[in-house]
Sequence to fold (471 residues):
Amino acid sequence: MHNRSRDRKILRNGGDIILLIAVFLAAVSLAKGHAGLPGKFLVLSAREWLLLILLCMIWNFGARIVGLYDEFRIRSFAGEFSVLGTSVLLHSFLTVVVLFAAKSQVLSRFFVFVYCSLLLLALALWKAVLRLMLHHYLKNGRHQSHILVVGGGRTARSFCATIAENLHMGLRVIGYIGEKPSTGFGCEHLGTIDQLPQLLERNAIDEVVVALPNGDIAQVDRIIGMCENHPIRVRIIPDYFRYLGTRYSVSRFGLFPVITLRAHPLEGICRRFAKRGFDLVFSALLFITVFFWLWPLLALLIKATSPGPVFFKQERWGIKNKRIECYKFRSMVWDSKDVDENGRYQQARIDDPRITRLGRFLRHSNLDELPQFINVLKGDMSVVGPRPHPTPMNLEVKDSIQHYQMRHLIKPGITGWAQVKGFRGEISDPEMLRRRIEADLWYIENWSFLLDLKIIALTCWVMLMGDPYAY
Fold:
């Protein structure tokens, strides 16, 4: 399975690069003709060859960031086309940056328009052809792996159900073997483990998947010995798969295979670098266009309506539980306290007497959060991520809510998936807090540039329409 996935990734990446080169050559030729300059289809200057090599590198960089070459057969064509569009959009932006730095007269706006348009069209057609070829092969029973599952328990049953729900993956379970027949498999019970050698002789089997409890080491050794008398691949599903998140990774440390339970896209340095770059550019644009006049206006209103400082600073937890000083526009009376006389953290609640009249508007419109863009520039926070909680709240719930600390795997954000899904405001119900944590973990494990842009857009919409949970 892994080898085939790697080969498919190489095929798709190689095909994309070949198309990119062809599109580049065509766009250069058309751009020169548009500018009234002589040029041939395959004739490039040394500077243009250098640009082509650079664009190929930029394409691979951008495709890795948006996850274009993740396993495409588990995505719909619409989903893949959406990722492809994001990748081309990012590539177009970086192409403009490169051409601006190069100060090219020939390869100007006309070139960018032709190049990016042809690239999107060519790649979309190429992806569609790949999908049709795969569908044709699977429909005719080709390009399929025939799998025999060893085990009759929960792990084996879940694996068979997953295969049955994803027939487009090109895998087919011919049956399973176990000490006795079990219900819920959806495929035939072919016998016991003692009959495995005869089954391997009589059936066309490509792979044997062992899904036994972890304690059956001696049985697993015996099964491997039987299978290795035949040209058949053996794969083992560890019984602790239920501890894995929706994303995990398998790597090797020396001779030891290592499973990371909760891998996430932002572990990759390229994606972290890209997210940080977006944070800086987005924040700088807001300071230049909006904050230079909005912040002084809000500061004057805060000073005019209540005594005390303009900004409110509070210790919160960032990435890896690092303590950060989080900034906000002050929305409460200056002498309000975060903890009560019993030392318990006091969350803001509806009709909280500590909130000023202007503060109620600031909180309802989320304008009180704007100073956290200072935290973004400092590197303590990101524009999008799990919201940072105050230290007293973290200490109060970190041991009682499962997976709570996992939300600190990445930088906290000014807005996040949990917030746009409505999981914000006062949390007095542990179940609501669990749902907020689940939303945060889903974001961490499914991060993408497209998702960040979606969250930012939804946040702007909520700010305009008003958030009933913001108080």
About this structure: Residues 2-139 form one domain. The first helix runs from residue 2 to 34. Residues 318 and 381 are 7 Å apart (CA to CA). The chain is about 50% helix and 10% strand.
